[in-house]
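Take a record.
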Amino acid sequence: MTLLPGGSMLAGLAAWLLLPIVGWRGLFLVGLVPLVLVFMIRYWVPESPRWLLLEGRHEEARQSLAWALMIDPKEIVLPSSVPVVTKTHWLELFKYPRLVAAGCLTGLTQTGGASLGLWGPTLLVLVLVPN
């Protein structure tokens, strides 16, 4: 959530600087750079140790945990079984008022940002351009 405004600002800056030089097709290719980063992260960051344990892949879980903790895998003792998580109903989320408030505030900020981004230029043109 924190990087959304930064990404929008970076996209605007890239469009301002690069659009006259490379055109929209080149700018589209520049926008694919984060996709390369996603594949790099997916390649280098291992799966969750908990998921690997649930799948019965104990040695991979040990390696994953060792990678995350930056220690020797031989130092890690894994549990013999993973506790089963009981399923809960989604309405239980409303037991936590801070979570509900944070969700509402996030929705409001997203709506406000979209409103500014979509209606702002139109309002500026209407105000600044003489009839």
Summary: The chain has a mean pLDDT of 87.
